[in-house]
């Protein structure tokens, strides 16, 4: 009989901060750009160049630390982590080992198993490395240093998670907090949020941890969930066969749904850390700390409470809308323009969610403006367009952020409220469908639905449904 195993998981989450410039130089942090165009002597590691710390990086790190219940290290330092890869131009990375800026925090998550607090061991600031691009055709690797020196915070959790569900809930909670703070857009597909999964298994009831592996290259929540299941099974299989798990870094291949070893896992001493000689220690005064705290925006919990009091929308809608900062921003801005919170909520909860799912998009990817959504709601509300046309127009708003008023005008989509024209069409429909008319007179209420459908079809979907129903009943 197979033994029962427990999975033990801790995460290292790297988050690119939303500063305009890099951590130690004035180069742009913008995503994209031709290779090696967002660079200078500092971020390409030229001899004699000196780093200058970006104050905004420290403030974002403090804000995230406070929002995740951490203790802020008011006297902290940078350290030099020495390692040799082509994407690391100085042959070292400026990071924090001995005195990280935030320590001993935690966030509460909720899964089907209930509520649980996931501990945060520390958050430290560091610079990102460049990007290696492997050209298989030429059999060479080339380096793009645009990302080198982009500011990161690394959030190191305690090994408190026991399943993929808990990991995803923790990541979603972190992403939501950081997006609300405006500290990062946390786009996994662009690499501005990356998670490395440290995972081990042990027999249920054991107190000692098993040997852990670290998995990299995880750029979506689905990939993370698959990687956790895959690695858990791989380790259990090794143990069942009497083999031992090797402590190593593994790379997850989502297409093959399997991982492979990259390198044996290094420990801190392998990096020969020492205090960074080119940067002075950071002293965070009580006043500075209070200033950052005072600038903290309205976070999700407070926003949810306010929505319940201020807007006439169901609690479920408020929960979903506030769980994504982008949705909350669109909801508030649109409501301010049209003054119809319930209708704004309906468009976000039904049509927006449907299109996001169909296009495999996240709420952060929404591109339409609150102004255009407000115009669409007003058009539908005034009866200028009917509900089926409104849905058709919304698809265009969602895809291309078109102006609904102009679009309706140009495409001739306004609802036909001309009773004379409708009456003539309906008379013809009744004449053409004697069987449905007979069914209706024999008490089959559904028959009228068919006749309404035929009328709408004849009017190219632009008739006023209420008026169609009224005239049909009158003529029948």
What does this structure look like?
It is a single chain. With 476 residues, the protein is an alpha+beta fold. The protein has 3 domains: 5-288, no CATH class; 298-411, no CATH class; 419-475, Arc Repressor Mutant, subunit A (Orthogonal Bundle), CATH 1.10.10. Helices cover 40% and strands 20% of the residues. It has helices spanning 55-67, 164-181, 221-240, 286-294, 300-310, 315-322, 325-338, 341-358, 370-381, 387-400, 404-411, 419-432, 434-441, 446-458, 465-475; strands spanning 5-16, 71-72, 75-76, 79-82, 92-95, 102-111, 114-127, 131-135, 140-144, 151-157, 193-203, 213-216, 248-253, 258-264, 274-275, 282-283. The strands form 4 sheets. A 9-stranded mixed β-sheet has the order 2-6-7-10-1-11-12-13-14. A hairpin with a 4-residue loop joins strand 13 and strand 14. The longest helix has 20 residues, at 221-240. The N and C termini lie far apart (73 Å). The mean pLDDT is 87.
Domain count, please report it.
3
Q: Mean pLDDT, as a whole number?
A: 87
Low-confidence stretches: none
- Secondary structure class reads alpha+beta
Major sheet details = 9 strands, mixed
Shape: elongated
Number of helices: 15
Largest sheet, spatial ordering of strands: 2-6-7-10-1-11-12-13-14
Distance between the termini: 73 Å
Radius of gyration (Å): 29 Å
How much of the sequence is in beta strands? 15-25%
Strands, count: 16
What percentage of residues falls in helices of 4 or more residues? 40-55%
